[in-house]
Amino acid sequence: MPMRELRIAAFAVVALASATPAQAQSPYGIGRSATPAEIAGWNIDVDRYGNNLPPGSGSVSHGHEVFDQQCAACHGAKGEGGVGDRLVGGQGTLATPKPVRTVGSYWPYAPTLFDYIRRAMPQNAPQSLSNDDVYAVSAYILNLNGLLPADATLDAKTLSAIKMPNRNMFVSDPRPDVKNPACMTGC
């Protein structure tokens, strides 16, 4: 073996031997464990009952302003749809050959509307809206669907109290190998 290749092989052996202890510390030798505070920052889920809804509030009128600025380009000026999904209407169509699934016709729990908007909207800048803005946009969309009056203001308590029209229309999966999703513990 020529001297140059021998030196390269020796360098490779030394490099691998020194890299082995670093790999033993983490699988890739990079990064660190997240702190509890960092994990808490990402724990923003809101369940169907409204558990973990944040403080804040938003009115239908403020929601109209935010919707016009952040949502209308995709969902239409009145939530009629466009590039983005239709958000309004469709009540009474779910059992027809052409069901229209919107917040007003299909969505079973109002707090999950807040959760979805806060996590995913606007699509080009998810999680950029304040909690007050998300309450307001939720209020505006619910108003467009006839589920809130125009002078309403939403907060954690009032949003959780809204009973969506399609709430009781979902059925359990009857297959024996599927557990009942409505049962959360001790089923």
CA-based gyration radius: 25 Å
The sequence of SSEs as H and E is HHEHHHHEH
Average pLDDT value?
87
How many beta strands in the DSSP annotation? 2
Give the CA-CA distance, first to last residue. 70 Å
Largest sheet: 2 strands, antiparallel
- Strand fraction: under 5%
Count of DSSP-assigned helices: 7
Helix content: 40-55%
Structural class: mainly alpha
* Spatial ordering of strands, largest sheet: 1-2
Broad shape: elongated
Unreliable runs: 20-24
What can you tell me about this protein's structure?
α3 crosses α6 (131-144) and α5 (110-120) crosses α6. Residues 20-24 have low confidence and may be disordered. The termini are far apart. Helix content is 41%, strand content 2%. The chain has a two-stranded antiparallel ribbon with strand order 1-2. With 187 residues, the chain is mainly alpha-helical. The longest helix has 23 residues, at 3-25.
